[in-house]
């Protein structure tokens, strides 16, 4: 039996770790740290720093190479294939390092429930016959970090918020009947495709980290500023994680 703990570690600030997250890390027999492209080496270093600060000698930490998603072909098909490849990597690491079962932990940016596929990948292993029990340790999400950094409420009074992606915003535009949009995974600044009149934006990159960057204002005034700042930060650091909130400007918090 593999006792898998998916641990939300927040958006990059070591102080985002909860007591529950620290306890789950210390109780693990093995923590797997995925290694992606070279341009995200500092993200690996941050995970390793968290492990060094929290762990005792009993927990093993193993890094492994994570496959990259194929950028060609239909998006959903490529993602499904990618998840299958990741599940195979997890299974290989489990067979190598926990052949008799045990407690495995994976450190997940933000929270495992919000635009993260760890739960779906774990379900593939279970469906493939691996005896597995999954526990989620919730973490601070980028949306929580964004609204805290800008000191704004997530929703307006008695109204809802739609959480979406840059891909959907670019293809479908502003959804009808929605007053506030929280946009994630936007590598193309999809807000530029909107009619900016009457829309406010709160944007943040590297939320919770020392290089945190924030811009807020009327979309008509700050759209180009965000695009330029984002490009400069990506060039400087080699990677970027950002998100933003869009709201009709006539709405009161």
TrEMBL record:
<keyword id="KW-0169">Cobalamin biosynthesis</keyword>
<dbReference type="GO" id="GO:0032259">
    <property type="term" value="P:methylation"/>
</dbReference>
<dbReference type="Pfam" id="PF00590">
    <property type="entry name" value="TP_methylase"/>
</dbReference>
<keyword id="KW-0808">Transferase</keyword>
<dbReference type="InterPro" id="IPR000878">
    <property type="entry name" value="4pyrrol_Mease"/>
</dbReference>
<keyword id="KW-0949">S-adenosyl-L-methionine</keyword>
<keyword id="KW-0489">Methyltransferase</keyword>
<protein>
    <recommendedName>
        <fullName>Precorrin-6A synthase [deacetylating]</fullName>
        <ecNumber>2.1.1.152</ecNumber>
    </recommendedName>
</protein>
<dbReference type="InterPro" id="IPR014776">
    <property type="entry name" value="4pyrrole_Mease_sub2"/>
</dbReference>
<dbReference type="InterPro" id="IPR014777">
    <property type="entry name" value="4pyrrole_Mease_sub1"/>
</dbReference>
<dbReference type="InterPro" id="IPR012797">
    <property type="entry name" value="CobF"/>
</dbReference>
<dbReference type="InterPro" id="IPR035996">
    <property type="entry name" value="4pyrrol_Methylase_sf"/>
</dbReference>
<dbReference type="GO" id="GO:0043819">
    <property type="term" value="F:precorrin-6A synthase (deacetylating) activity"/>
</dbReference>
<comment type="pathway">
    <text>Cofactor biosynthesis; adenosylcobalamin biosynthesis.</text>
</comment>
<feature type="domain" description="Tetrapyrrole methylase">
    <location>
        <begin position="4"/>
        <end position="222"/>
    </location>
</feature>
